[in-house]
Amino acid sequence: MTAAALPLVIQGGMGVAVSNWRLARAVAAMGQLGIVSGTALDTVFVRRLQDGDPCGAVRRALAHFPKPEVAAEMLRRFFKPGGRAPGEPYAVLPMYRQAVSTFRDRVTIAANFVEVWLAKEGHHGRVGVNLLTKVQMPTLASLYGAMLAGADVVVMGAGIPREIPGALDMMAIHAPATLRMDVDGQPSDQPVTLSFDPAAHGLTDVSLRRPDFYAIVAAHTLATNLARKATGTVEGFVVEGPTAGGHNAPPRGTPQLNARGEPVYGARDVVDLGAMRALGVPFWLAGGAGTAEGLEQARREGAAGIQVGTAFAYSDESGFSADIKRRVLAAVAAGEISVRTDPIASPTGFPFKLIETASIAQQDDTRERLCDLGYLRTAARGENGRLVYRCSAAPVRDYVNAGGTVENTAGRRCLCNGLMSAIGLGQLRKSGEVEPPLVTSGDSVRELAAVARGRLSYTAHDVLRYLLGEPPADLS
After folding, report:
1. How far is CA 158 from the centre of its chain?
2. In degrees rounded to 5, what are phi and psi of residue 448?
3. Closest to 245 (Cα-Cα) out of 294, 297, 308, 293
4. Tell me, what DSSP letter sits at residue 434?
5. Continuous segment of H or E residues that includes residue 103
């Protein structure tokens, strides 16, 4: 893209379907870059169908899937007219492994197709998909599904996505793609790979366009490494500071905690923007830049613009449940909210931000440990030489039996189930209780008062007006 065509604002790819198709479509239709979150999208997809797809959007998008028999199979397997019966839990998908069935990958392909297709419906703006590098096993199927729907951009962080550009190159011509799989205890000279062959899904007659690839980085050295050594072209970087919501990069150097038990970031964690400019690749600033002044400052620093998450996360169009949005905005107005960067909550080992307010009962240590979604499971080489999969938020015995340590389970939260509950798709347990939510946010949640202006709801359009320095809409 030419510099003139680059977006000033990238809407962040937040949480599990917080950045949903409605939000991405609203932002893209207004000329900025809308992003859908691809994390756990297959589970979101089948749960929407099990709830009866009340607005009909999922079925509308599936009607455009390039292989009708695949769409028909999704509806046959998962769609419940009228939704689940009272007291009926959601049926769950098999957890991802190194190799899964063709059907299991097709669910992921269809889910990402549906989300991107809906986000692109009815306008000519640009839409991207955000994935976590750490969540490796569904990645290739997720990317392929998004590409089938015409995704314009792929954004990835939470790791080093060095092989993603090359995988996009291959899948754009329907060629097999591979990624090196992280396996604890695996000799470096004997790599394990994740493979995906588009030919197995009978869609190779569909014309595809390779999306641009933007890497999320927290250090200019990582950006330099990716610009030089990625397997394909990196078209942009999102430079994310530690005030951004969700996962943060850990501080560089010897770990230190403040009085609240949060990681302490210092001068080594400040990105050298001069080095970013020298790369000659467009970049956007994220984390604490979500104001009109922040946008102006980013432009003065040579950035193409900013990525903004928190302000969009609590807009009417986002995927957070209406109750959570209302409670958060009320707590912001009352000055009764804070954000804590928890160094151990996430099984990934990355610091993870969580809202703290008395008005929202979130998942805590009293939750019975179980692992039935498994997106944050990692692979390890077991004592018998076979691959095992483990998550430090799973039952302690299961984690230890897979080679983990008891110490590493302390304080871990089940992000998969907690984030699913935050968007109103929480699992019903045998106790009759629905999984409690986990609500993540950037530090700038306290500043939402400037967007909300005393209200308990606002729109994505309101956010863009605020960011672009336009007069607010009439409240009358």
Report:
1. 10
2. -65, -20
3. 308
4. B
5. helix 102-120
* Domain locations in the chain as residue ranges: 7-320+455-467
Measured between alpha carbons, how far is 34 from 97 in angstroms, rounded to an integer?
30
Residue (of 218, 247, 85) closest to 160 by Cα position: 218
User: Which tens digits make up the pLDDT trace of 216-241?
Assistant: 999 999 999 999 999 999 999 999 98
- Which pTM value belongs to this model? 0.95
Q: How large is the angle between the packed helices 460-467 and 21-29, nearest 10 degrees?
A: 50
**Pairing verdict, β 378-381 and 387-390:** antiparallel
- Using the CB atoms, write b or e for 403-417: b if 16+ within 10 Å: ebeeebbeebbbbbb
Question: Could you tell me the pLDDT band of residue 250, with boundaries at 50, 70 and 90?
Answer: confident
Of 451, 360, 375, the residue nearest 415 (C-alpha): 375
φ and ψ of 378, to 5 deg: -120, 160
Rounded Cα distance between 159 and 418, Å, is: 22
pLDDT tens for each residue of 163-207: 999 999 999 999 999 999 999 989 888 999 999 999 999 999 999
pLDDT at 385: 83
The alpha carbons of the chain give a radius of gyration, in whole angstroms, of 21
As a whole number of angstroms, the distance between CA 184 and CA 382 comes to 9
Level-2 CATH architecture, domain 7-320+455-467: Alpha-Beta Barrel (3.20)
Per DSSP bridges, beta strands 305-308 and 283-286 are: parallel
**Nearest-CA neighbor of 110 among 53, 76, 149?**
149
Alpha-carbon distance 118 to 129, whole Å? Answer: 12
Burial of 328 per CB tally in 10 Å (0-12, 13-18, 19+): buried
Q: Which residue has the tokens 């793609």?
A: 177
